[in-house]
Amino acid sequence: MKLIHRNFDKNNSGSVKLVPEESEDMWHAYNLVAEGDHLRASTVRKVNMESATGSTSAQKVNTTLTIQVESVDFDSQACVLRVKGRNVQENPYVKMGAYHTIDLELNRAFTLGKHEWDSVAQDRLDLACDPSQRADLAAIVMQEGLAHICLVTSSMTLVRARIENTIPRKKRGSCTQHDKAMNKFYEQVVQGLVRHINFNVVKAVLVASPGFVKEQFCHYMFQMATTSEDKETRALLEHRPKFVMVHSSSGHKQALREALSDPAVASRLADTKAAGEVKALDAFYNMLQNEPARAFYGYLL
Fold first, then answer.
1. What is the DSSP string of 117-159?
2. Predicted TM-score (pTM) of this structure
3. 65, 95, 200, 284: which is deepest, by most CB within 10 A?
4. Four-CA torsion 16, 21, 22, 25, nearest 10 degrees
């Protein structure tokens, strides 16, 4: 979901202008729009037009309406949100108080106003507009002295951090300066990883590099997590099974494509992406079998 503008006052009253960009955004919109809200969007209205001779004919006109929402219906097959309500702003084609249904579709902007954006609505808005809350795949593409920390969604790859350091070359008989610089580089990558990756959402982390950089980095990271007093850094040990090492030709962002195209990686990620849904379904079936009074499915009448 693309956020065009957000205007709230101190009482959390106000409006947001949004553009749904993918199918999941329509589901978020369905959960955001509520009865009593004001919705403004472009729409089509059939009106009777009078010609110069006095005859009338029905024509469809494009106009922008603001309605007070009375009902919301989500067509998941067509990926359309149908919002019905009464017109609350002057319009040359629609009388005040007249009913109209606005169809919200992908890539069409709309403005939603609420008397109060409560914590639930604001959390939903943040979830819809922050891709990092939906990206269940993270990636570190690296080489000596260069790393990109990325979040991968179904529609885009977001670079959350770029770490670049100068690494001295190894000298004959001494690697001290090189190793010291690499350890500092690895530490910065770990800090970036902890800062930018939400492990409650991310189900897999690709670590891609040429040579043995990925193995050396993972070894350093888990050693650092073992000895660190920082709670978030130590938590990396719990997420160790999520890390997948794979070869790439460089540490540039473009190398991520070749890492993702690896058949072994693709099958591993397919399993990982489905793990959360499978776990939730298993928990539901288990509850249905052992505690049927707590598990329900169907329509609420």
1. --HHHHHHHHHHH-GGGT--EEEEEEETTEEEEEEE-SS-EEE
2. 0.57
3. 65
4. 0
